[in-house]
Amino acid sequence: MKNLKRLLLITVASVIAVGAVPGSASAYSKGSCSYRKTLSVKTYGGHATVKLLVYRCKDGHDWTMASMTSNGGDSEGALWMDVSRDGGKTWKGLVQKRRFTLDPGDTASIANNKLQNDGPGYSVRACGYFGNNTVYCTKWN
User: Fold this and answer.
1) What is the chain's Cα-based Rg?
2) pTM, whole model, 2 decimals?
3) Contact at 8 Å (CB) between 118 and 27?
4) Euclidean distance between CA atoms 134 and 117, whole angstroms
5) Which UniProt keywords are listed (predicted)?
6) Which of these, 97, 89, 84, 94, lies nearest to 124 by C-alpha position?
7) Rounded-to-integer distance, Cα 25 and Cα 86, Å
8) pLDDT tens, 61-75?
9) The sheet that has 136-137: what strands, in order across it?
10) DSSP bridge pairs for 63
């Protein structure tokens, strides 16, 4: 029994050290990725822009990052990414949510260690609100 527990502990530590299982939506490094496209949507009245920045990695997966930029107003808001396994019919909401206050021209983004791997079978979008509780989301990638 002691050996079995030890083997399990080594296996779990190895998975953590190596990273997530390939093809899963998980934290991902941008190191070997190149810019591919930006999906964006403006909030009510154009007061802010929610963006999903998409990078293509050498392994064929898309690495994504969410950001929001104030277009002239100052207010409080929030930003997050949704992840779906069925093309957006259902999703796990509020993944990596960040609340913030923006002055005119400022940008908030989800930290680099919270990047989302848009692997096979997964879709990702950026969502947020600014100044009110109306949620705006980009299209699914």
Assistant:
1) 17
2) 0.71
3) no
4) 27
5) Signal
6) 84
7) 13
8) 788 889 999 888 778
9) 92-102, 75-84, 123-130, 136-137
10) 55, 117
